[in-house]
Amino acid sequence: MNASSDPNLGLIESARALIQQEQLDEAAALLNQAREQLPHDPRVYLMAGLMTEKGGNVEGAFQLMQRGLELAPNWPPAIMEVAQMQARQSQFPEALENAATALSLDAQNPALLEGAINVAQLSGQRQLAMGHLQQGLERDPANASWRRLLARNLSELKRYDEALAQWDMLLTQSPQDMEALEGRMHTLLAAGRLEDAAEVTAALLALDPGNAVYAYYDARAHGHTPAHQPAELNRNIFDSAAHVFDQQLVQGLRYHLPRQVAQKIRVLHPDKKLNLLDLGCGTGLLGQHLGKVQGRLAGVDISPKMLEQARRRGVYDSLELSDLHDTLRDTAEQSFDVITALDVCVYAGDLSGTVPAAARVLSPGGQLILSCETGPEEGPELVLNPDTGRYQHKRSHVEGLCRAAGFAVETEATILRYEKGQPVQGFVITARKAG
């Protein structure tokens, strides 16, 4: 279909691109123009739904999607758009049903297959996603994006040899495919094949010698546990997941630590007269549960997209792009009454500098509240989980760091989240500064 037979095609495609770039006002102008040309074009309402979802109004987004469906009730692309939004909002049974319906109506449509793959991935149905991917690759063997995703899924399922075969196919087609090299490296590290992984990290560093992320993985491939993860390692991951982060983490993984810690802060400061520094604030879940304080609520994070989501909550007095090490170094002494670091230490690693730095920034009597994944007491002080790439901390060591910094320590064992249906064991330390 071209512009002469479909005057809205260019407007719709441009609006979708603008929505993905979060240029919502510009997208709205194009959609208004498209609606003037074709008032009953269902795509206008579908794109308006995407735009409204991106703006944070999920209920309004579904209403617009429903209007689009009413205009084209049996149109597979419309059904798939709804399915993908349902998956993003953790409405997984409905999303899977709609995706299957759309695909059954037009099984040969590659765009619909792509949508069904997305829905299966978001819903945690890896086997279903891999079935769709294999079907797609039979039709389009050169589709590198699908092959990469298949390889990642196979690796996640610990089918390492099959995953490596997919990475090797990609590298045969393009020997300097950085994504394939990185994927092969991750699979080899997860499989414990460190020598082979070191060969890949050497190749990556030869292509990009100053890359801090490659240097980090090279250290791991040589059997070392780096003290910290470079900020670049997680920034892209969190940026890409920011718009669905809350649904996936809170609903999908049952992550309730911000709510629990907000309740703890209310007990410690019932009048909410405090200055609070939220390290690694993410989308601002702690601020959402705590609400406005009679003081200053400051958030910092390494991800610009996460900070955008936090800003929409309207409860933080300041939000800055920074990591916790730089923030604590640059913050004046005795500036805050409470410092939180929730689901941050798993990426920060070595806390030997973090804890005393937090003590310097806290006012007398202030509290540092941090969470860690639990490492074995009989093992080293800091370990990396090869399956998740996150740090685990020995509880007694972190408690010792807090006491050495002058804190009185209370520790509570807890389940941080659930992954693949299994609880992730952790602990929350509330460290009180003297004074």
Q: Can you tell me about this structure?
A:
With 435 residues, the chain is α/β, with parallel strands linked by helices. The chain has 3 domains: 9-149, Tetratricopeptide repeat domain (Serine Threonine Protein Phosphatase 5, Tetratricopeptide repeat); 150-224, Alpha Horseshoe (Serine Threonine Protein Phosphatase 5, Tetratricopeptide repeat), CATH 1.25.40.10; 236-433, 3-Layer(aba) Sandwich (Rossmann fold), CATH 3.40.50.150. It has 22 helices and 9 strands. The chain has helices at residues 9-20, 24-37, 42-54, 58-71, 76-88, 92-105, 110-122, 126-139, 144-156, 160-173, 178-190, 194-207, 212-221, 231-241, 245-252, 257-268, 285-290, 304-311, 324-330, 345-348, 354-361, 395-404; strands spanning 275-279, 296-301, 318-321, 336-341, 362-375, 382-384, 391-394, 407-419, 422-433. Strands 1, 2, 3, 4, 5, 6, 7, 8 and 9 form a 9-stranded mixed sheet that branches. The longest helix has 14 residues, at 24-37. The protein is globular. The mean pLDDT is 94.
